[in-house]
Structure formats: C-alpha cells, structure tokens
Amino acid sequence: MKLKVALGVFVWSLLISVMHIQLNIGWGAVSDRIAVMRGQQRAELLVGFLPVT
Amino acid sequence: MTENSSKGTLFHSRKFTDWPTVKEALISKEVGGVFILAPMAMQLVADGVPIKVVYLGHRDGTAIIVGKESNIYDFGDLAGKTVAIPSRYANQNILMHRMMREWGMAEDSIDLREVPPPEHPTALLAGAIDAYIVGEPFAAKAEVDGFGRVLYQASDLWEDFISCVLVVRQDLIDEQPELIRELVAGIAKSGQWLDGDIAHRMDAAEVAGKRYYFQPPELLKYVLSKPPDRVRYTRLTPLKHEFDEIMELAFEIGVLSRRVAFEEYADDSFAAGLEGTSWDLDFLPRPAGWDQGRAR
Fold it and tell me: Would the CA dihedral through B257, B263, B264, B265 be positive or negative?
C-alpha cells in the first residue's frame, strides 16, 4: 500500500512538473537554463529600449 | 549597455520605435527587461503585469522645444498652444501638468498631443505643433538643425527629473536574481564611466550612434556635451519619495487607474550599495592632447 501511495505521489509530481514546463516555461527555456548551469552555454538577456537618451 | 559582461553573460539590446510595442514585448516575455516610461511602468503593474522597476535609465535629458522664431518665452506663453508629448504615460506629461498647476493654469489650457518621439522635430518644423517636450536626442535635433530653441531644460523645472526607468520581469527577479544584479551593476558602471569624463561621452556617442541608435554621432555628441550635465547617468537608484510624487500626480490627472505603492512596482535591492561604489573604468588610455579638435 505504502509503495502504491509513494508511486502515485511520484507520478503526480512528475505529471504536474511536465505540465508546468509545457504550459508556463517552455522546453527550450529549460534546456537553455540547464546548458548555462552546466557551463555549456552563456546566460543571455534581451533588453529593449527606445532611442531616447 | 555592453553585449558581453565580465562574467560572460550576453546582454543584447533591441531597438523599438514606439511605446506600445515596447509594452507588448514585455508582456509577451519577448524581452527580459525594457527601458520604459516611469508612469507606464506603474500602470502596467496596476494592470497586473508582473514587473519591477530596478534602476533608472538616466536623469534629466528632457527639454521643452519651441520654434526658433516663435514668440513663446516662458511657460505661460504655452497657454492655448499645441504641445507634443511622447505618451500620456510619460513623465513629460506629468511635468506639463505639474507646471500648469504651478503657473495657475487650467488643466486643459495647453493642448497636449501624443506624438512618437522621433516625429516631434518634424511636427514642429511642419507647424503641426507649437512646441514639444521629449527626451534627448529628439529635443536637441530641432536645435542642431536650426529651427528649434530650448524653452526649458527639464532640470530647470523639476530637479533630478526622471524619464525612463529599467523594468525587468518578476519571474527573472525570482528565478535569476544574479542576472538582474549583473545587469544593474553593468548599467551603474556604464553611468559612472559616462559621467566621469567628457571623452567617454564622445566615445559613447560614436558607438551608440552607429551601432544602436542609428543616428548621427554628432547629434549625440551635442546632447552629451552641451552642457555636459544635460543628461546624467549617475545617482540612478529608484528613490521612494521621488516615485511617490510622480505616482500621486499621475493618479490625480487620471493617467493611473489607481494609486500604486512603491513596493508594488519597484525593487531597489539591486541598486543597493552601488551609489558609493567606485570602479576603475578607464580602459582607453590615450596620449595627452588626443581629443583636440573633437566635440566641437
């Protein structure tokens, strides 16, 4: 019984995480973050501006 | 802003030509941050957009420009005239209303019209407006081209005038605060470098004019040197009492839909400690007298 509950919690957490990435973050962004953390890619940030001062 | 920080982060910049597109890019997460009008940042937060003001873009750097031969010599002469503003969400709009109150003028005594900043000088030249108030270099453009005259610099009317602020997305603040810290520190260093030596300003005008603004470097050199404090890039920490004044005025004249507390739309923690910091920034040693004949 305990094993079933633990497995259920694990599957539920996994499913929620996958849905969160799919809906809110995007797989590309996750892959970029991992690459930056592993030192394979440089962190990037795009900043917008108007040519006013 | 540099593309490559000393930590290896790539900071890219994207030029926009109008404020609504800037706003959309921020909401759609196309950009991580933007230099945006201070009251616009407040209204975005009031509308539920998760962003925070983390630093100022500059101080001053705005002027009211009238036709060179016009008979407008003080603020009172603007009564009954048409004046272009960059946006109703611009602090330039707030400044105009602040001045109307100061001069005892009715709120509608000046016809304020929203015109995209790059179109201000041509609108004045074409006679479509009597004056305009905008950030540089569009204020200086009419002056340099010989058909405009500065009625007031913003610093004559509102001490330490704030126009553009740097806002960043809340999710970046929560998930990558080190990235925002690096960005803000980089802008602070750039500001100290710019304000530290007029030669640095001339270099910046060359680079920004050719690579980012796509405007004549000579115009930017004029803006950054006539006089040197026409635009200032230091003391850029967002201060609560200054923003409170802007917010209150913006609410009173109907620009903001509700009052917004400083803590709701600003996070000054990234700027904390930067004001007193000094960096060794002159990476461009030059022989004596190298600048003779420049910046005239």
Answer: positive
